């Protein structure tokens, strides 16, 4: 199996890069022609969702010190539960069926997530494991350090492969191509960690709300608003203030880590692992002036691993190389153009800054809030569209560093510039609810989706703040930093067991 994977990686590396790029540019012209012909227009907005998890030992057959340790998911289990492979062997991903943005559509999204996740949890329980909704794991597999798990690799006839990575060829090819950096590590406060493959990215998991615009030509305006709400929504969602303790620098103290660590370390992981000095593949993207420019940006983005594509009967197989290239177009907010049939072809925005959340309701709250904002802000010509792009970018990274303590700049509906947290979220969440109501939700239904986020503002508590508080308490009780992080993580998972499907993070406060 290992030799076969190495052969497939070599096949990928033999793809003619110039021909691949030329075909991607030709595919872009196909998409732009479809845009001009209205192929990517639809009668209403559509929402979708990607939800990533990692697996831990549930303690049924394990020693006490192995409970909640990271564990590898059998491939047959993924097939059984209908989840998809992600980067690490411990990962699993669910993708929902797209639904119209309406009260029924959002209910369908939440019901599908709960139904499939409940079934997956039952199957995982029989294997002595549990799927966890979280931003960044901190307890490595039993008997291994996080450093060992993330760096373990072998070389077969010159092909370098991570031992704990899924067998998807593109992941392994990324460490072997001509543009691959010498190492793919993490650069974070008090943590400098090098790895031979992209495996460190498997530390993190996310949710990704999708918003499909009704009229493709309107994508640039929606994209501009998506960039301006990215910081405020990320500030509410932060959930990864700690890394596995053995990754930190040996001379780093607990106080230094608490003082200097980002509330959303997931942002630093994704950027530092996949960016190089020559190419910032993961970044806060710039505004686009036209929908055609959005297509060109994907086509012109430097390729990590050119890969051949096979033909098919889908409509978007007409631009299959561009779709393949899009798979490594890693922006925190990104445009997507695809569709299995001509009638289902769509232009959408994938919103990627949000980490996996403590409960399903919290995760769906961010999907609904983002969709509501995409409905309301353009319709009401909200003046935050005019917020300078540099300020929107500063908001984003300030939110990643400091969560709700960040000083964010916003423009209210009245046109007033404010840095007041209360004013910002009063305006933002009111428009999120307004957008849901305009899409057919009742006031009570809109409140159901938005209230979990309102409660975070009212209590000034995010999942990252909850984690920091638990670690601080344990340190004050005399525990070591390693024990404090592990204890916090086990407490997080135990709380989640009771609330994942039917509760809310606010139940933890």
Specify the biggest β-sheet.
7 strands, antiparallel
Structural class: alpha+beta
Q: How would the global form be characterised? A: globular
Distance linking N and C termini: 48 Å
Mean pLDDT: 94
Radius of gyration: 22 Å
Order of helices and strands: HHEHEEHEHEEHEEEHHHHHEEHHEEHHHH
Helix count equals 17
Unreliable stretches, pLDDT < 50, 5 or more residues?
Answer: none
Can you count the beta strands? 13
**Relative strand content:** 5-15%
What does the oligomeric state look like here?
A: single chain
Helicity, as a percent range: 40-55%
Structural notes for this entry:
With 509 residues, the chain is an alpha+beta fold. The chain has helices at 2-13, 17-36, 75-81, 103-126, 146-151, 169-173, 219-237, 254-260, 265-274, 291-300, 320-326, 360-379, 389-402, 421-438, 443-459, 463-476, 481-499; strands at 46-57, 91-95, 99-100, 129-132, 153-156, 159-162, 186-188, 191-193, 207-212, 333-338, 346-351, 410-411, 417-418. Strands 1, 2, 3, 4, 9, 10 and 11 form a seven-stranded antiparallel β-sheet that branches. It has a two-stranded antiparallel sheet with strand order 5-6. Strands 7-8 form a two-stranded antiparallel sheet. The N and C termini lie far apart (48 Å). The model has no long low-confidence stretch (mean pLDDT 94).
């Amino acid at each position: 199996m290992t030799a076969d994977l190495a052969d497939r990686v070599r096949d990928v590396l033999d793809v003619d890069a110039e021909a691949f790029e030329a075909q991607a540019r030709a595919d872009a012209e196909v998409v732009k022609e479809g845009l001009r012909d209205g192929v990517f227009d639809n009668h209403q907005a559509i929402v979708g969702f990607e939800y990533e998890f990692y697996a831990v030992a549930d303690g049924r057959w394990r020693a006490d010190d192995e409970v909640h340790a990271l564990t590898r998911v059998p491939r047959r289990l993924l097939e059984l539960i209908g989840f998809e492979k992600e980067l690490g062997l411990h990962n699993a991903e669910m993708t929902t069926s797209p639904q119209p943005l309406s009260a029924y559509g959002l209910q369908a999204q939440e019901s599908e997530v709960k139904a499939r996740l409940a079934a997956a949890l039952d199957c995982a329980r029989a294997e002595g494991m549990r799927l966890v909704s979280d931003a960044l794991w901190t307890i490595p597999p039993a008997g291994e350090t996080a450093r060992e798990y993330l760096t373990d690799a072998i070389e077969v006839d010159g092909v370098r492969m991570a031992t704990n990575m899924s067998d998807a060829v593109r992941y392994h090819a990324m460490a072997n191509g001509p543009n691959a950096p010498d190492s793919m590590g993490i650069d974070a406060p008090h943590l400098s960690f090098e790895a031979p493959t992209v495996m460190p990215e498997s530390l993190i998991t996310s949710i990704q709300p999708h918003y499909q615009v009704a009229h493709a030509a309107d994508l640039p305006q929606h994209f501009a608003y998506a960039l301006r709400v990215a910081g405020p929504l990320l500030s509410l969602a932060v959930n990864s203030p700690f890394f596995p303790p053995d990754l930190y620098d040996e001379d780093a103290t607990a106080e230094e880590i608490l003082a200097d660590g980002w509330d959303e370390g997931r942002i630093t992981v994704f950027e530092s692992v996949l960016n190089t000095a020559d190419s910032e593949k993961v970044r806060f993207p710039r505004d686009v002036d036209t929908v055609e420019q959005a297509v060109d940006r994907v086509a012109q983005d430097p390729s990590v691993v050119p890969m051949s594509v096979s033909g098919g009967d889908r409509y978007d197989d007409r631009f299959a190389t561009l779709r393949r290239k899009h798979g490594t177009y890693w922006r925190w907010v990104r445009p997507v153009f695809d569709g299995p049939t001509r009638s289902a072809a769509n232009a959408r925005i994938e919103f990627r800054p949000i980490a996996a959340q403590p409960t399903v309701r919290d995760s769906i709250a961010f999907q609904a809030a983002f969709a509501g904002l995409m409905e309301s802000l353009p319709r009401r010509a909200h003046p935050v569209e005019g917020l300078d792009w540099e300020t929107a970018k500063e908001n984003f990274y300030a939110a990643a560093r400091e969560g709700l303590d960040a000083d964010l700049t916003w423009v209210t509906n009245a046109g007033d510039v404010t840095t007041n947290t209360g004013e910002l979220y009063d305006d933002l969440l009111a428009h999120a609810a307004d957008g849901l109501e305009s899409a057919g939700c009742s006031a009570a239904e809109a409140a159901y989706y938005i209230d979990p986020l309102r409660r975070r503002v009212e209590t000034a508590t995010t999942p990252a703040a909850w984690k920091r508080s638990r670690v601080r308490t344990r340190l004050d009780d005399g525990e070591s930093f390693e024990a404090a992080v592990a204890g916090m993580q086990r407490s997080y998972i135990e709380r989640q067991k009771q609330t994942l499907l039917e509760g809310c993070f606010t139940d933890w406060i």
